[in-house]
Design brief:
- The chain is mostly beta strands.
- The chain has no helices and nine strands.
- The chain has strands spanning 8-12, 16-22, 31-36, 39-46, 65-72, 83-87, 90-96, 107-108, 111-112.
C-alpha cells in the first residue's frame, strides 16, 4: 500500500519534545496519532475534493491518499501527557520530558479543537 510522507519537524526544547507536521487540506477527524514502545505514528488520509472525471490534469503535484509518519522518541519523552493541536493545516504534538522509565504503553492522542469562530 502506498503512503505519502508529509513534511515534518521534530525538535527538543529544555522541557519538551515537539513535532510539527504539515497537513494542509486534511480534516482533524482524518488524523490518527498512536504512541507506544518509544515510537509515535501519525497517519490518516488526505481526501481530494477537486478530482472530477471531466478534468484532464496537466500537472498534479499535491499528494492525496493515505499518509504516515513514524518517529523514534527519546526515552525522556513522557507520552502519557502528550497533547496535540491542529490549526491552519499544521499538526503540533508536544510531549513533556520526564525522568526515569515508566515502561511501554500504547496510547492515542486526541486533537484539541482550535475553532476560534
Amino acid at each position: 500500500m502506498y503512503y505519502f510522507t508529509p513534511a515534518s519537524d521534530m525538535f527538543e526544547t529544555a522541557d519538551s519534545i515537539v513535532i510539527y507536521i504539515e497537513l494542509a487540506g486534511v480534516k482533524k477527524e482524518d488524523i490518527n496519532i498512536e504512541i507506544g514502545g518509544g515510537i509515535i505514528e501519525i497517519g490518516g488520509i488526505k481526501r481530494c475534493a477537486v478530482i472530477n472525471e471531466e478534468y484532464n490534469f496537466q500537472r498534479m503535484e499535491r499528494p492525496f491518499g493515505l499518509f504516515k509518519r513514524r518517529f523514534n522518541l527519546p526515552s525522556s519523552a513522557d507520552w502519557n501527557t502528550a497533547r496535540a493541536s491542529f490549526e491552519g493545516g499544521l499538526l503540533e504534538i508536544i510531549m513533556p520530558k520526564r525522568t526515569g522509565n515508566k515502561g511501554f504503553r500504547i496510547s492515542c492522542i486526541e486533537i484539541d479543537d482550535q475553532d476560534k469562530g
